[in-house]
Amino acid sequence: DGEVYRYYADGEWRASASGKSVAIVNPTTRKTQYRVQACTQEEVNKVMDAAKVAQKAWARTPLWKRAELLHKAAAILKEHKAPIAECLVKEIAKPAKDAVSEVVRSGDLVSYTAEEGVRILGEGKLLVSDSFPGNERNKYCLSSKIPLGVVLAIPPFNYPVNLAVSKIGPALIAGNSLVLKPPTQGAVAALHMVHCFHLAGFPKGLISCVTGKGSEIGDFLTMHPGVNCISFTGGDTGIAISKKAGMVPLQMELGGKDACIALEDADLDLVAANIVKGGFSYSGQRCTAVKVVLIMESIADAVVQKVNAKLVKLKVGPPEDDSDITPVVTESSANFIEGLVMDAKEKGATFCQEYRREGNLIWPLLLDHVRPDMRIAWEEPFGPVLPVIRINSVEEGIHHCNASNFGLQGCVFTRDINKAILISDAMETGTVQINSAPARGPDHFPFQGLKDSGIGSQGITNSINMMTKVKSTVINLP
Ligand code: G3P
């Protein structure tokens, strides 16, 4: 009906002076569902100025008060779970139940962040000088954590709410202000989430949310001199941002090609269940999804059969029906996935199911006997298509995992815990899960990627620490 969602600046909902908007296409209907403002660079400048001013006062606001407001926002967020989940269903085709879980998980994350913040930021350190050679006990160094300033948060489409609050919560509790640039798909869910923070009563200008085309305001935001920290989750863009960003701390979580290594002694039912959950939940559109199965030849037939038996039972359809497999986020994403499938076909992979696609909806597909010369052995489809590579030794599996340019997570299935730990040590990934599929949560666990999968570590505690700096005062005695 021509209505355009407003952006959030200086505690107000505003229409952009550009008079332009960006369409959000529903992945299921492939029709425009919502429109958001296409903010201008001038508007970004204003937001940055306001964020800088608001931050100074916020940093002086007592920590317990900051925590109190975050708890309030968390409760409001949970109260608004239904309308926010509805947006997730329409904008990113997240299955209805998962959409609600994302919002609830986000509320819990914000509360936990407030609690964790008052503990870790409420502590400082005292050092005395006489432990270093040549010094008397005449200097006392008091150090505590201070905020960085303005934090720029850029979450991805697959968790527009959860991966926004995982940046907003730590930034705010630590005394920073925050500028959010939501993904286009998921922007309206993010605006609703920001509204919950608005209702909680945070000071004007402390939180802002600018929407628009990445091509117009993306670089302008990430290279803006007013930004003191960037927390980004997404794809390759992160690598480009890291090259252009100024001298500011970066927290990045980019892609992954998480391997699932299954040994002969593994519980085969457990392996199959985790391949399906890890590879196909939210249609494989998670950076922590299982993206390559590396399985010992002797158990491969049995596991492939078990996985196939589960795949036929998955419900394929619209997210409103709470289907397991829903349309992927955009047509170009579906085309990319199809490209990987066709490449594997030409090079002789075994199709365990017939390849089927209608619009953005792709039916779950397991590709067996994938070889390293196929693109899908290395690239991440971000869709419901999973390659199986048969291996003859554990070393072969570890080698494939480590030859990837990614290093987010991985998993190993075996009943031998000693072997599992040795394999975990050998895998060049930020996390290795033993006997379960990769996953970021629980959200207070450290979460990090090696190589092209990221910079720094996330998880509630690590994010709070990352968004602070140490400040010292030294008392010199006569
Ligand atoms: O894709 C984003 C990544 O953070 C995944 O999170 O909770 O699905 O493991 P999760």
From TrEMBL:
The active site is at 253. GO terms for molecular function: glyceraldehyde-3-phosphate dehydrogenase (NADP+) (non-phosphorylating) activity; lactaldehyde dehydrogenase (NAD+) activity. InterPro entries: Ald_DH/histidinol_DH, Ald_DH_C, Ald_DH_CS_CYS, Ald_DH_CS_GLU, Ald_DH_N, Aldehyde_DH_dom, ALDH-related_metabolic_enz. Keywords: Cytoplasm, NADP, Oxidoreductase. Transmembrane segments: none annotated. Residues 13-472 form the Aldehyde dehydrogenase domain. This is NADP-dependent glyceraldehyde-3-phosphate dehydrogenase. It comes from Dichanthelium oligosanthes.
